[in-house]
Amino acid sequence: MRPFAQLTARGQQRRLRQLALLALDRYDLEDPGLRFVHHGENTVFRLDTAQRLLPPDSPFIPGRYLLRIHGATYNTPPEIASELLWLQALRDDLNLAVPEPLLSRAGPFAIQVAAPGVPEPRTCSILRWMHGAQQARHPQPHHVKKLGRLTALLHQHASQWQPPASFVRRRWDWDGMFGDNAHFGRDTATVWAQVPAQYRSSFEAVADRLQQAMHDLGETPATFGLIHADLHLWNVLYAAGEARAIDFDDCGWGYWIYDLAVILGRWRTDDRWEAMRDTLLRGYAEIRPFPSDQLDYLDTFIAARAVSVMLWVVGKAIDDPSFRPYVASDLERTAPLVETLLAQR
Q1: CA 113 to each of CA 15, 18, 21: distance values in angstroms, whole numbers, following the listed order
Q2: Mean pLDDT throughout 224-253?
């Protein structure tokens, strides 16, 4: 049998489909149909069943679920279990419209499944499929305001919730973004060495500035807690007059302002920058005020997000040919934003 790593993406999908079928045997779902959705850090399948019993105001599509085969290296099984615990807590405590995890027949949300031709057991989990539409292509101010409100709800819950002792998620501190704990697909030194020289000094300046900002802010309940960490608009659905977050795969311990930076970065050099920033903050303030002194660091976190994502692309491209066509254009797009934000100080 050909080694898994040497297969094409389609070949890997075929083997993972067999693993998905084995996983389904361990959940109580009625004759689920399986449809491929995505193969990346995780491999995702859509499930459709005949089960239709949900309240009419439910945020979930009756009978539809999302099966994730989690990547072997991105999140550990305890980290995946912890993500699912937070999602269930958001449902139980706030009745918030977030993907709800499904218990396996044996009890845990997440299970370990092995399949022939896949080199290691994989963690699998199933979530209910959310109602809603993305508005990422042409978002309007009211979409941003609703997202601000949702962000504050997530932060408020994280500030009050007491996770169990077993809860473990990654840290979006300096080491988690630029140091040895960063998830770039390769070790940090190797990835930095792949950054072309004309970009490296400005990217390093952003990393240095972020380190100082994090030192200034400290890790206190007012500045730091459990965050989504990937609240860009492709990870937000809109339905029933509200914003709904999906894809908590990156959630972890980080700075509240980082969630704002992820949302707002797309507008930083846009004519609508101030309007969108202020609109997001107005939505946030419907739940709780965002400390104005922390906003002084917003540009730093926007630049840091842009550079860390760029380093992730560079790192993935070392081993994954599908990323390589995007490296040059992504660098050319990221560099002007970084230079603009470095000049603000």
Answers
A1: 13, 10, 10
A2: 98
Average pLDDT value for residue range 57-65: 95
Q: Please state, in angstroms and as integers, the Cα–Cα distance from residue 28 to each residue in 79, 160, 256, following that order.
A: 24, 33, 38
- CA dist., res. 15 & res. 236, Å (int): 30
Task: Go through the domains of the chain in sequence order and give each one's CATH number.
Answer: 4-130 (3.30.200.20), 141-342 (3.90.1200.10)
Quote the CA–CA distance of 32 and 47 in Å, as a whole number: 6
Better-scored residue on pLDDT, 173 or 72: 173
| pLDDT of 7 over the 90 cut | no
3-state secondary structure 6-38: HCCHHHHHHHHHHHHHHHHCCCCCCCCEEEEEE
Global pTM reads 0.95
